[in-house]
Amino acid sequence: MNPVYDFTGQVAFVTGAASGMGLATARAFAESGAAVTVTDVDAAALDTVAKELTAAGHRVLALRCDVADEQQVAAAVDRTVETFGRLDLAYNNAGIQIPPSDAADEPAERFDRVNAVNLRGIWACMKHELRHMRAQGSGAIVNCSSLGGLVGIPGRASYHASKHGVIGLTGSAALEYAPRGIRINAICPGTIDTLMVSDMIAKGELDRAEAEANQPIGRLGTAEEIAQAVLWLCSPGAGFVVGVALPVDGGYVAR
Predict the structure, then answer these.
(1) What is the DSSP code (8-state) at residue 98?
(2) Does the reported pTM lie above 0.85?
(3) Per-residue pLDDT of the chain (255 residues; tens, 9 = 90+)
(4) C-beta of residue 200 within 8 angstroms of C-beta of residue 32
(5) How many Cα atoms sit within 13 Å of 218 on the Cβ side?
(6) Does the CA dihedral 228-233-235-241 come out positive or negative?
(7) Buried b / exposed e across 98-128, counting CB within 10 Å, b at 16+?
(8) Which of 91, 159, 177, 252 is catalytic?
(9) 159 part of the active site
(10) Pair 208, 201: CB distance under 8 Å
(11) Where exactly are the transmembrane stretches of this chain (predicted)?
(12) C-beta separation of 227 from 5 below 8 A
């Protein structure tokens, strides 16, 4: 049974919200009373999400946004504040995976692309969210890293570099903004049963049985379990939690 949160009167901003962990978190924020801006590069899927949340009686703003483009990020955050009047909560979730590669053979273009989305995208989102939260003197931000931000895996150097970077970005910004009433943390999901993971399995880049065995709990995580961790980090229950990189990984990094 999940805890119940009350975010009535607050406004949440979620990237990568058309599916997976972003969608589950947007739903959870909305069901907890928040008005929610959902963003994604997939406009068609985003439209479906917006219709679902609106039909359920929630206040929602859907905006196509490529987080690798800082101007698009700034416009989406500004539009959120223009529409709802404030910004209280953010889950910077948008990210991509790239195929495994020998570190000596990986093209620079692939390194640049994964860091443009996974690291620079979170930097841009946090930057523009903080502009508004700083003026309010309050807010909570959760950045999506990965168990790949805490460990290394052969063939994944560029992806893991992007996720390690998120943790460094989070920690430094958290120290800077904690005295101003804004809490910033990171979440580090393990292997979660999402479309991205399903695609990796279909391409032969990940073996499901092996992935399940590598998590001591013996299964993949769910998007809803990630959402609950994000909501907790944004809630008053985590009011003294600042600058952490929280593993939600079925015990992977505890081995």
Answers:
(1) -
(2) yes
(3) 678 899 999 999 999 999 999 999 999 999 999 999 999 999 999 999 999 999 999 999 999 999 999 999 999 999 999 999 999 999 999 999 998 999 999 999 999 999 999 999 999 999 999 999 999 999 999 999 999 999 999 999 999 999 999 999 999 999 999 999 999 999 999 989 887 877 878 888 888 888 888 889 999 999 999 999 999 999 999 999 999 999 999 999 887
(4) no
(5) 0
(6) positive
(7) bebbeeeebeeeebebbbbbbbbbbbbbbeb
(8) 159
(9) yes
(10) yes
(11) none
(12) no
Identify the residue whose tokens are 């930097």. Answer: 123
Question: Distance (Å, rounded) from C-alpha 174 to C-alpha 193?
Answer: 29
CA distances from 212 to 126, 128, 156, 183, 249 (A): 32, 37, 19, 33, 11
Q: Which amino acid would we find at residue 15?
A: T
What domains appear along the chain, each with residue ranges and CATH number? 11-191+220-246 (3.40.50.720)
Compute the distance between CA of residue 43 and CA of residue 19 in angstroms, rounded to an integer: 12
Task: Look up residue 33 and give its two tokens.
Answer: 């009373």
Name the token pair of 54.
Answer: 């609106």
Q: What are phi and psi of 222, to 5 degrees?
A: -110, 155
Tokens of 226: 């990630």
